[in-house]
């Protein structure tokens, strides 16, 4: 591991200016949330502050990992999901295979090491 890396895990709900302040201090943001509204708010702060965003999620037997980076030529999270509506197929309606959550979390946390 690079000894110059500083990791700050936030285990609190951040919104508005507090979220923007936290994103402004980050070189990259890992989205570890479980709902669309929060993902959209994190995405908006990252876009405004030109901070890369790495997000992953799992449902059923599937999952996704995305690395969204400035200058956003490939789009951002809101470009893919323009509203805050939860997908019809989510963990409440479709469940998630236990190890799948861990696998996608591992992928999300590995990505910044190769960033």
UniProtKB/TrEMBL annotation:
Ranges for the THIF-type NAD/FAD binding fold domain?
Answer: 1-105
| GO terms of molecular function | nucleotidyltransferase activity; sulfotransferase activity; thiosulfate-cyanide sulfurtransferase activity; ubiquitin-like modifier activating enzyme activity
- Note the Gene3D superfamilies from the entry: NAD(P)-binding Rossmann-like Domain
Metal-binding recorded as keyword: no
GO annotation, cellular component aspect: cytosol
What Pfam families does the record point to? ThiF
Q: Which UniProt keywords apply?
A: Nucleotidyltransferase, Transferase
What SUPFAM superfamilies has UniProt attached to this entry? Activating enzymes of the ubiquitin-like proteins
List, alphabetically, the InterPro entries matched. ThiF/MoeB/HesA (IPR045886), ThiF_NAD_FAD-bd (IPR000594), Ubiquitin-activating_enz (IPR035985)
Q: What is this protein called?
A: Sulfur carrier protein ThiS adenylyltransferase
């Amino acid at each position: 591991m690079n000894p110059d890396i500083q990791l700050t895990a936030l285990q609190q709900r951040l919104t508005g200016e507090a979220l923007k302040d936290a994103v402004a201090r980050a070189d990259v943001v890992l989205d570890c949330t479980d709902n669309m509204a929060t993902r959209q708010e994190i995405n908006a702060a990252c876009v405004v502050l030109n901070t890369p965003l790495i997000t992953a999620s799992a449902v059923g037997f599937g999952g996704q990992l995305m690395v969204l980076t400035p200058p956003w030529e490939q789009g951002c999270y809101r470009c893919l999901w323009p509203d805050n509506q939860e997908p019809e197929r989510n963990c409440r309606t479709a469940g998630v295979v236990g190890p799948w959550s861990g696998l996608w979390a591992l992928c999300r946390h590995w990505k910044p090491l190769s960033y």
